[in-house]
Design brief:
10 helices, eight-stranded parallel β-barrel, 10 strands
Length: about 300
């Protein structure tokens, strides 16, 4: 397992993090006992960063993680969650209550990182005037250590980064084989500001595993398939799953990305992805070809 320093927080984090959405069944049915084993084995394999949110399974992801971390495991991980859900208004009271509820579900008295979730769903002024002050109050009270912000809308994310209110950022599906739009502007800014960077959905919500999430639209899947057809030179095996290894290595090897989230709900998938976090990226020639093929391309 590879480790790095999570920006200005100073936290030492595994470059592979465990993503919480699949643990709640958001990408398909899950077995409760298997999920508990996945979390336990991830920690045993050296994964020390777990990211979840109230949105995932309407709190079920947090509840399952809380159960799995009982008995001393909580102290072995950097625990990150998010504040509120996109169907809520991110006012001061809602943010405070959301984090309090997350603490209860996760069975802990503090979170290492709390991120405002999908801020593109909320008015900018509301985030500035109410959500950020609420996060600061939680930090003053010792319930939160560090503050983060998440969205896939990169221009908006950079706008929030420049407020200097945050210690970390998370985007998704913006640094993967089919879409590396975070590379040219956001990642250099994060490096300059020394912010922790979390990369979510490196498999494009299942697209690069050729098992797209059921909630993705037909047009999105069709456009992605056109890109996937150009990636045969990267395949490690025939058929579905042949792009998982290059997709994971593409993100793991970027020094500006501190944590690449692996959304898995089975032991086999966990072990496969953890084995790829060994410091080896794509060959320089192949990586350059990926950048050339998909410059300016987006999927979502």
């Amino acid at each position: 397992m590879e480790y790095t320093t999570f920006g200005k927080t100073g936290l030492t984090v595994s470059k592979m993090g465990l993503g919480g959405a699949p643990l709640a069944g958001d990408f398909g049915k899950t077995d409760e006992n298997e999920v508990q084993r996945v979390i336990h084995e991830a920690i045993d394999l050296g994964v020390n960063f777990i990211d979840t949110a109230p949105l995932y399974g309407r709190g079920e992801s947090e509840r399952r993680i809380g159960r799995a971390l009982a008995g001393g495991r909580r102290e072995r991980v950097v625990l990150a969650s998010k504040a509120a859900r996109s169907d809520m208004r991110y006012d001061y009271k809602t943010i405070i209550q959301s984090v309090e509820d997350s603490l209860a579900r996760l069975r802990t008295d503090r979170l290492d990182l709390v991120q405002l979730h999908d801020v593109d769903t909320q008015p900018y002024e509301l985030i500035i005037e109410e959500a950020i002050p609420a996060l600061r109050k939680l930090r003053e009270d010792g319930k939160v250590r560090f503050l983060g912000v998440s969205t896939k809308v990169l221009d908006l994310l950079m706008r929030f980064m420049r407020t200097e209110a945050f210690d970390a950022v998370q985007f998704y599906a913006r640094y993967m084989l089919l879409d590396h739009s975070a590379k040219d502007a956001l990642l250099p800014l994060a490096r300059e500001m020394n912010l922790g960077v979390i990369n979510g959905s490196v498999l494009g919500m299942g697209i690069l595993a050729e098992t797209p999430a059921s909630f993705l639209g037909e047009e999105t899947v069709r456009r992605a398939a056109e890109g996937i057809a150009k990636l045969d030179f990267l395949r490690t095996k025939d058929g579905p799953g042949g792009l998982i290894e290059p997709a994971m290595r593409f993100s793991f090897a970027n020094p500006d990305i501190h944590v690449t989230l692996s959304g898995v709900a089975t032991l086999d998938a966990l072990r496969m992805n953890a084995a790829l976090c060994d410091g080896r990226g794509l060959e320089a020639e192949r990586q350059a070809k990926v950048f050339e093929l998909f410059q300016g391309n987006t999927v979502f």
